[in-house]
């Protein structure tokens, strides 16, 4: 493809993107497809001699785009807000267009240094102290794995350089809760910790926050049995019900064991942009690592997850490689982000944040987050006031967990659970809105995650009508 | 940013990208900056109230873009070809514009199924059998880590689900060579293998290919000592000198131990698109996993690395999570790529391949690879014919390793080594061309990696003149 062909096709594509954003509300939130449908539409080999970009765009429009769940739709309340601010998309396009290669400082000095700049902007905007250094990871899952491996090497005295985990004589324990994100357990297992050595600490039955007294008990028992409390993963704003584990009390327990403290604030970290929410993050200065995702509520397009560390030198020792063909000729003082994570090569992801923060500006981003908090609070109040409906977990930020109990089923927990899964599924299938069915104490509930960039109060009013219709319909 | 503002700014950005590609040859390959220069230019906070996209583009042009190494420049011969075909950039823009979320099949059915389609297109185009299933990873480093963890769990009988590595009584051995990519050792250590248990098998002194007789000896010794040969990483086309480890002979040795065979063909895998090169990849059907990077020589923009597996079900068991909020309501038959790797969330990376393969077409891609092979071969012949120059490793594909030995320094290995590092650095600093200095047997050489999309024969002719100038200049 020549630059001139690219120019023409690029203009058409940009128009298509702008038009799609303008018309998002006219489409169903969720596509009506079954597994295999899209692949069947795309059957056949790629054309040997190539084809026109216009033909590909036509297929994108007619075959591919109708098969995505429209997470930018204002009636999308599933999983978490997966916002993609248009300013950040522009930054992503700039990154693709620059086509630079991040394998060392030298391979693209700007790629490294813009990353240093934007990660520090966000450190400052979220009120973190200057002792934190950050790096962009693809996702919080990966950030958690990186932290787990760093913690493993701290606990074993950097044993990977010698006899490794196999040569370490004592069990290494991981502490978290059942409310923690699924990626925490996955990261622990991938890092080589044993399933047998993962401790799920009790949570408060109402808030689902970790109970530090139980943590203290468990750590003491493990240490007494010859184990090493290696890492505790603290959820600040869990995915499920926005649990906030009490970090200061956890740090009091963990510090005597020199246990690595990793804070997973993937979803809720955006709230640190609001000074009035920072009390929820009290004690952060006592953690070793922290990750949160601008690619969720804050609105920078995927994949933009931040990992901050208090001692990046430890991570660099764990992750470093230095073969001759990657050796920089520019001295040792440059940051080599390849030593801050798993992949060697990186895209210029910092431009997404640079564009987003510069064009939209922090003020507008904060105003939007405050709008969402007010909307979620308003929505929770409406639910609480409605007969047969209840808010089943504290609304700490923008997620509202709800359950409908039809009078005819009251008292039959299992039937109520089935009913809630059923109406959520039917609502989702309609394409009018999308919620995540979730479980709490083994029973199905519905999570309403407020915070898509385009979601206004009117959309929540519409959602209330839909809840009445889909939940009510079945119960009558 | 509104859709209409995005439309205007997007058009300007597309023009900027097209213009940059047209003018790439007018810029130096390597920027003349020192660590910290770019960050200093960008000092200051993001503007609270936001700013115009035009101001950001102006800074991109004046402050950021001059600080990248131009890996799309036809005189870039460093590291490896990090091609970004404009058609694949278009696919990347489409992905950003769709802004869909890949956390499950349900969150974006098209994202999953287009990936299945393109990964299968490339399986077929590279002559791999239909028993292989693939997935896109960000890089070969990550793919290697994923394979290492899968191998670890095969070797321990899925011990992560129980007492983990610590509970496994016997050493787990990793086999590779010193010629393997640095990411291999890193992946082994991150996966929890011990440095003490990594075996660097002897290589042929001329080709740097693994010597299977030494592998047999080492595996037998390790097994006799109570160890478990867990994984062998086979380089097919190494980064340094394009070594091809003899896979069939390695498989003969490894299979009796049930050792996982991972093939790293990150750089050279593109050659599998050419039937006349497939003999280099003989024995692939005996490997357990294979990764190669369309984002290198083939030309799809970063980050597009492929990982193929013969038994994806094993990987899924190792990587799987299934929390309630991610449970699909669409039955169990859909592919859930989150269980094929580390991150939960994924971008719609398949569109880069879909656009690239459809618009350029396999025929054009193959023709370009053949052009590069012919150019590298021609260049090696020119070097071999030149007094004082030598080709110091076999030219298996498109990388030519060269050394200059000035008559005045002949016999003084250390001085010759210094001389070669010196002229490469001076050439790189000039911005006229870029080569990777590399070491072979402890001495500096220069690697000329041919294969940037825009590199034609005339650019190699120009490179010969530059070699004469920079190497000759110092030696006279």
How would you describe what is shown here?
The structure is a homodimer of 476-residue chains. Chain A has helices spanning 3-22, 37-41, 53-64, 86-98, 109-125, 140-155, 182-190, 212-224, 247-254, 312-319, 350-359, 361-385, 413-430, 457-475, and strands spanning 76-77, 133-137, 172-176, 198-200, 228-235, 260-264, 289-292, 305-309, 389-391, 399-404, 434-440, 443-449. With 476 residues, chain A is an alpha/beta fold. Chain A has a seven-stranded mixed beta sheet with strand order 2-8-7-6-5-3-4, sandwiched between helices. In chain A, strands 1-11-12-10-9 form a five-stranded mixed beta sheet, covered by helices on one side. In chain A, strand 3 (172-176), helix 7 (182-190) and strand 4 form a beta-alpha-beta unit. In chain A, helix 6 packs across helix 7. The radius of gyration of chain A is 24 Å and the shape is globular.
Approximate strand percentage of chain A: 5-15%
Total beta-strand segments of chain A: 12
Low-confidence stretches of chain A: none
CATH architecture of the largest domain in chain A: 3-Layer(aba) Sandwich
Biggest sheet details of chain A: 7 strands, mixed
Strand line-up of the largest beta sheet of chain A = 2-8-7-6-5-3-4
Question: How many helices of chain A does DSSP assign?
Answer: 14
Structural class of chain A: alpha/beta
CA radius of gyration of chain A: 24 Å
How many separate domains of chain A?
Answer: 3
Distance between the termini of chain A: 60 Å
* Helical content band of chain A: 40-55%
Query: Would you identify the CATH H-level superfamily of the largest domain in chain A?
Result: Type I PLP-dependent aspartate aminotransferase-like (Major domain)
- How would you name the oligomeric state of the polypeptide chains in this document? homodimer
Most extensive interface: A-B, 165 and 165 residues
Reading off the top of the CATH hierarchy, the class of the largest domain in chain A is best stated as Alpha Beta
Q: Summarize model confidence as the mean pLDDT of chain A.
A: 95
């Amino acid at each position: 493809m020549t630059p001139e062909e690219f120019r023409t096709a690029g203009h058409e594509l940009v128009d298509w993107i702008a038009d799609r954003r303008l018309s998002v509300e006219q489409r169903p939130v969720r596509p009506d497809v079954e597994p295999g449908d899209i692949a069947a539409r795309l059957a056949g080999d790629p054309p040997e001699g190539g084809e026109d970009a216009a033909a590909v765009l036509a297929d994108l429009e007619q075959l591919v785009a109708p098969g995505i769940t429209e997470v930018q739709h204002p009636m999308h309340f599933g999983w978490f807000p997966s916002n993609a601010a248009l300013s950040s998309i522009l930054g992503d396009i700039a990154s693709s267009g620059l086509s630079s290669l991040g394998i060392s400082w030298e391979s693209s000095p700007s790629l490294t240094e813009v990353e240093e700049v934007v990660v520090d902007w966000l450190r400052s905007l979220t009120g973190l102290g200057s002792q934190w250094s950050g790096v962009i990871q693809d996702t919080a899952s990966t950030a958690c794995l990186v932290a787990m491996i760093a913690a493993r090497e701290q606990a074993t005295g950097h044993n990977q350089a010698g006899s490794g985990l196999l040569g370490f004589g004592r069990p290494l324990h991981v502490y978290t809760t059942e409310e923690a994100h699924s990626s925490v357990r996955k990261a622990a297992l991938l890092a080589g910790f044993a399933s047998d050595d993962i401790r799920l600490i009790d949570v408060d039955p109402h808030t689902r926050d970790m109970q530090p007294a139980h943590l203290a008990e468990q750590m003491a028992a493990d240490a007494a049995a010859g184990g090493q409390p290696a890492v505790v993963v603290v959820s600040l704003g869990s995915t499920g019900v926005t649990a906030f584990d009490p970090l200061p009390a956890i740090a009091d327990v963990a510090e005597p064991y020199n246990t690595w403290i990793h804070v997973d604030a993937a979803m809720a970290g955006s709230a640190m942009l609001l000074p009035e929410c920072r009390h929820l993050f009290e004690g952060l200065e006592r953690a070793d690592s922290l990750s949160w995702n601008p690619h969720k509520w804050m609105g920078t397009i995927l994949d933009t997850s931040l990992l901050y560390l208090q001692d990046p030198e430890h991570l660099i020792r764990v992750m470093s490689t230095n073969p001759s063909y990657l050796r920089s000729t520019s001295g040792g003082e440059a940051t080599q982000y390849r030593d801050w994570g798993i992949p060697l090569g990186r895209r210029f992801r910092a431009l997404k944040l640079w564009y987003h923060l510069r064009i939209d500006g922090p003020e507008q981003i904060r105003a939007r987050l405050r709008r969402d908090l007010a909307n979620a609070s308003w929505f929770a109040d409406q639910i609480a006031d409605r007969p047969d409906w209840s808010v089943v977990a504290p609304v700490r930020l923008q997620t509202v967990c709800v359950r409908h109990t039809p009078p005819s089923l009251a008292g039959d927990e299992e039937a109520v659970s089935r009913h809630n899964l059923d109406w959520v599924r039917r609502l989702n299938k309609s394409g009018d809105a999308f919620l995540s069915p979730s479980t709490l104490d083994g029973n199905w509930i519905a999570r309403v995650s407020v915070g898509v960039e385009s979601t206004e109060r009117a959309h929540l009013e519409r959602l209330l009508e839909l809840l009445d219709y889909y939940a009510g319909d079945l119960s009558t």
